Amino acid sequence: MAKYVYTFTEGNKDLKDLLGGKGANLAEMTNLGLPVPPGFTITTEACRHYLSRGSVPEGLDAEVEANLAELERTMGRRLGQADDPLLVSVRSGARFSMPGMMETVLNIGLNDESVVGLAARSGDERFAWDSYRRLVQMFGRTVQDIEGDLFEEAVEEVKAAKGTTDDLDLDAADFRELVGRFQDIVLERTGRPFPSDPREQMALAVKAVFDSWNAPRAALYRRQERIPADLGTAVNVCAMVFGNLGMDSGTGVAFTRDPASGQPGVYGDYLQNAQGEDVVAGIRNTVPLADLEKIDVRSHAELMGIMDTLENHYRDLCDIEFTIERGKLWMLQTRVGKRTAAAAFRIADQLVDQGMITLDEAVQRVTGDQLAQLMFPRFDEAAVAGAGVRRIGHGMNASPGAAVGKAVFDSYTAVKWSRSGEKVILCRRETNPDDLEGMIAAEGILTSRGGKTSHAAVVARGMGKTCVCGAEEIDVDTKNRRLTAPGGEVVEEGDVISIDGTSGEVYLGEVPVVDSPVVRYFEGEIDPASDQADDLVRSVDRLMHYVDAARRMRVRANADTAEDAARARRMGAQGIGLCRTEHMFLGDRRQLVERLILADTEDEQRDALAELLPLQREDFAGILEAMDGLPVTVRLLDPPLHEFLPDITELSVRVAVAEARGESHENDLRVLQAVHRLHEQNPMLGLRGVRLGLVVPGLFSMQVRAIAQAAVDRMAAGGRPRPEIMIPLVGTVQELEIIREDALRVLREVEREHGVELDFPVGTMIELPRAALTAGEIAENAEFFSFGTNDLTQTVWGFSRDDVEASFFSAYLEKGVFGVSPFESLDVDGVGRLIRIAVEEGRAARPGIKLGVCGEHGGDPASVHFFHRVGLDYVSCSPFRVPVARLEAGRAAGRTAG
Ligand code: ADP
Ligand code: MG
Ligand code: MG
Questions:
Q1: Considering the domain 376-514, what is its CATH architecture?
Q2: Are 5-239 and 250-336 equal in CATH topology?
Q3: Using CA atoms, how far apart are residues 762 and 783, in angstroms rounded to an integer?
Q4: The pTM is what?
Q5: Looking at the predicted structure, is the pLDDT value of residue 563 above 90?
Q6: DSSP per-residue string spanning 332-388
Q7: Rounded to the nearest whole angstrom, what is the distance from the C-alpha of residue 78 to the centroid of ligand 1?
Q8: Which ligand sits nearest to residue 276's alpha carbon?
Q9: Domain boundaries defined on the chain
Q10: Which of 49, 300, 394, 455 is the catalytic position?
């Protein structure tokens, strides 16, 4: 028969799925010999059974019975025994902790009789009645769903009658009175008296924990965080220990290192004569953990020893909850603690120094997302404390970065002001697609409603724009163009505010922004061996050295200019995976493109191309120089030609005006006709990529010639250019064959002209499903593949990114259709499957084929791990993401990679 209950001596830390995080770690501490009050855990399996069938599994009651009996034997008291009651807590504890789940109920087992026994045994009547009123209050609130305010109000009334605001001034009689009042509230709200039978109390509390798995807030949280809905929660029943037994008792929380900075040394808070959450609820001022040494030197010493044991055992930062009962220390919880990005790097580095973990393990303790956080410019903390700047509110850290600007309250003003050179922060209750222009114009976005999947959050992340969302305490009044902070500060339109998308803080005034020292290190401005480098930079440096040696995949950058290429190289890029050429056709060169499009004869066309050629050659020379010795994949022109023509409305107006005035407008009219001719309903699927190369004679060969000549120039200057020619948007091998032959012909011509050898690979992007599905054939004509995962995602899903992201992605995320946008993180099941097919068939057809990826996914941590698994040779991403990709490629290759 299945086993549904485990005593704390039976479990261990690896049983989190079955016992939940709290239960597994309570068991682990018990087995380490630490002072944990005895108890048992009811498994998640029992919960799953209860939730799916509506009743607890057969045998569970008997098992609980047996375990309780065993607990009673150990403690020498029965649950709720009138003259000397055993009390227990009933604590929820899922695999992942979740807001909205039922909170813990303490002091189960008290009733009108046992409270007297507890008073007599402890010799402390105040303590007994305080414990009892806590039970009725917590039970009423969490098990019976009674509004907590009712209980709070009663407490306030009793305090007021006493003329105090401090709970320490309340005596036994006050608490006894509160118990009476609380029992009345329960009777009134539920129609039944407070359950006095201790076993009934326990059973009701256990069921309430089970049921709370499906509480709306918990369900929403799971959908958003991609936590499976069917895991269920465990329930822990634990003998009570009492921190509210006088000033020699108390309760506290602690971390084995500072989770904010990562600095070594314990860190925590302690509160005398208190129970449970009192220490974090802010009812009285806590004292720093160090002061416990003065209050109770023995318990303090024991606690320090235990924290040491825990760190050595978990080999990581732990956070703990403890209680001291009349000078005796008890451990109530531990887990590997959450930490900031900076702390993660520092701690990983320290643990290596201490010999606790290997470097390989250390790099598994940090993530690319954390590194990315450290790379954003941030507000100067010293200045925040300074004059003129005040923190006025807090929201969710939806999209990282630090933005400063004048508050504006609608999209129109955002656009108008930004056009006149003002920096603005768009403040809205929430955003919708109508706000898009304003969001683009703004430095950052602040909303008072909606979570990390709200429209504002999704769109801001897509644009890489700073966003703080769901700052519920801030009242945004768009009608009167002002917002009001909880402290009463009013921000009118035009007042400067600063928002921190990494922490979620909102400030009134201009907070100075400082460059990240980590970026300055990557840029080569800070030498990690010098005094300039702090311990964070040194930690990052050490881990980066390790991952660079460990990773199999290379990391390239997407860069279109010599400056970007140089920057990417400083950031550690090992080449360029995508050099787009479209920007090279803009600006002054538009006229040449116009001439190319309008040409009536092949001669005219050839002339236009001939003028573009030297300009293109210059473009490539700079990039090849910046990346000397490293591969540079140049993509031939990709976007539809009409993107280079003037705007249709502007042009129509110009023609109409000229006509009305009777002026000559021959050229404009011709261009307008061309614009109409080239107009496409759906340009993404129209005349672009290789299709352009096939229908505009000479365009691609001009580009290839420019690349070849630039390379020849570089060689003459002593350089080692390594261009690679990439053909975009190929759907069938025939397209590629034609263009490739032409490209090779041009290369041979240039070789003959200059008497050099130009052995440059020619390959293709794989960005259409058909290309992936026929990758074997395509590989016979391609020396490399580069997966263009942006377009591949668009074409696999049938999504036009610019349209869908702003219009309905937020609804999709909220309904849980997907947990993360497929443009942010690769859709492994769909797009990833096509990549797998193309990798296998491409390699089968051409074993030495070089495979890479150049979509934005190349810099996304989860996607990088996927690319490692399918065996790509390199990823390519924006220069700024190069360090993130290096780190994740190294983590993916690590021995302990999970
Ligand atoms: P959470 O998941 O919110 O941390 P816990 O189950 O840890 O909830 O319990 C809430 C509070 O009650 C914590 O401060 C915890 O230390 C305290 N607590 C839980 N069980 C006991 C117990 N048996 N004796 C004393 N305090 C307890
Ligand atoms: Mg806890
Ligand atoms: Mg593309």
A1: 3-Layer(bba) Sandwich (3.50)
A2: no
A3: 6
A4: 0.88
A5: yes
A6: EEEEEPP--HHHHHHHHHHHHHTTSS-HHHHHHTS-HHHHHHHHS-EE-HHHHTSTT
A7: 21
A8: 1
A9: 5-239, 250-336, 376-514, 551-589+596-640+701-897
A10: 455
